[in-house]
UniProtKB/TrEMBL annotation:
<keyword id="KW-0249">Electron transport</keyword>
<keyword id="KW-0496">Mitochondrion</keyword>
<dbReference type="InterPro" id="IPR016488">
    <property type="entry name" value="NADH_Ub_cplx-1_asu_su-6"/>
</dbReference>
<dbReference type="GO" id="GO:0005743">
    <property type="term" value="C:mitochondrial inner membrane"/>
</dbReference>
<dbReference type="InterPro" id="IPR045299">
    <property type="entry name" value="Complex1_LYR_NDUFA6_LYRM6"/>
</dbReference>
<protein>
    <recommendedName>
        <fullName>NADH dehydrogenase [ubiquinone] 1 alpha subcomplex subunit 6</fullName>
    </recommendedName>
</protein>
<dbReference type="GO" id="GO:0006979">
    <property type="term" value="P:response to oxidative stress"/>
</dbReference>
<keyword id="KW-0472">Membrane</keyword>
<dbReference type="GO" id="GO:0045271">
    <property type="term" value="C:respiratory chain complex I"/>
</dbReference>
<comment type="similarity">
    <text>Belongs to the complex I LYR family.</text>
</comment>
<keyword id="KW-0999">Mitochondrion inner membrane</keyword>
<keyword id="KW-0679">Respiratory chain</keyword>
<keyword id="KW-0813">Transport</keyword>
């Protein structure tokens, strides 16, 4: 287990996010700084949890950025502070190795790929106006059935 005086733990920053008034700046800047902080710790995480067997550092960064982009619509400073606080808790639990390897694999390797696949399926479901019109005017199976003697 890693000691509390480790320089990497100091790099994580304060465990509790100070109020928005104390931080100053836009919530976008706070989120961007936190994302950069997470990205700086990813190489250590890959090495200690042996994630390089399953994914690359760039793929892991892309997966983490997917979680950040899920909340891109959030603009209220208090909500951004809460999200950053939750992210810091997650980061601390990962750094202090309170999570096991399969937790990280499930949350940051498998789940983002499933989310991307669901997004692609959703995009593929959108049909053109021509097909929508065609499907709407197509007779149903029962009415189109041919009566056989």
């Amino acid at each position: 287990m890693v000691g509390a005086s480790s320089p990497l733990l100091a790099q994580i920053g304060r465990l509790a996010t100070p109020p928005a008034e104390a931080l100053g700046g836009a919530s976008v800047d706070k989120a961007r700084d936190f994302f950069r902080e997470v990205c700086r710790i990813l190489p250590w995480t890959m090495q200690n949890y042996k994630l390089d067997e399953l994914t690359t550092l760039s793929a892991l960064r892309r997966n983490v950025s997917l979680f950040f982009r899920q909340h891109a619509h959030v603009t209220e400073p208090r909500v951004v502070d809460v999200l950053i606080y939750k992210g810091r808790e997650e980061l601390e639990a990962t750094y202090l190795q309170h999570k096991q390897r399969h937790h990280l694999i499930q949350d940051y390797v498998v789940k983002p790929e499933q989310m991307r696949a669901a997004g692609v399926r959703e995009q593929n479901r959108k049909t053109s106006a021509f097909l929508d019109n065609f499907y709407r005017n197509m007779p149903t199976h029962q009415s189109a059935a041919i009566d056989r003697p």
